Amino acid sequence: MQAWLDGAGSAGAPMPERIDPGSPLRARRDGGAWARGCAAKTVIRALRRVWRRVRGRFAGPRSDGDSGNAIVEFVFLGLILLLPLVYVLLAVFYVQRNVYGVTEAAREVGRAYVTTGEPEAARYAARLAMQDQSAPDGDLQIGWTGPQGDCADAQDGLPQLARGEVFAVCVTRHITIPGVPSFVGARHNTVTGRFVVHVDEYRDFG
């Protein structure tokens, strides 16, 4: 029994060394484990503080009862800002489409009239030009003026063709901006296209 306690058992195998709780080796081991545990806790607390700051910066302060209000407010404000923008874009596209239409119509009227000499062919060309821009082809006013004249002073119809004659074709259309009340002048807007025509000096109209 004494031999076993001294480190040699009945089989001759040494007994593992037992460390006294009060020994310096046990104190060093316990101190290292305690230091490692404190370091791990410090790192975890630091990571938690960083996460709270990041989440607070992007999500903002909110209570548990207001957790879904931020999304609702964002959608509501987005609709309030988006609807006027969509309306303005649609109105601009509508006006621009009519401007392109009357500009193309004035050019086609001048070319068709000089080529055929028939006002009906010129009006038909104007309707085709408006349809090409997906704009209504009704309520078109076709007139003419001098090469330096203003379309506001244009005469209705088309002039008599003559050799070497130069004149400007004016095509005007009244438009109504959608969504704008009539008492603010929505029905008093016009778009005008202008095209200068030069008749061939050697053209035979006989």
List the helices and strands and how they pair.
Layout: H1 2-5, H2 24-59, H3 69-116, H4 119-132, E1 140-145, E2 155-156, E3 166-175, E4 189-198
Describe this entry's structure for a reader:
- The longest helix is centred in the middle third of the chain and has 48 residues, at 69-116.
- It is built from four helices and four strands.
- The chain is elongated, with a radius of gyration of 46 Å.
- A four-stranded antiparallel beta sheet has the order 2-1-3-4.
- The model is unreliable at 1-29 (pLDDT under 50).
- With 206 residues, the chain is α+β, with helices and mostly antiparallel strands.
- It has a domain at 73-198.
Quick gist of this model?
This protein has 206 residues and is an alpha+beta fold.
Number of strands: 4
Quickly count the helices. 4
Shape: elongated
| Cα end-to-end separation | 147 Å
Helix content: 40-55%
Taking pLDDT < 50 over at least 5 consecutive residues as the criterion, the unreliable ranges are 1-29
Characteristics of this structure?
elongated; alpha+beta; 206 residues; four-stranded antiparallel sheet; disordered N terminus
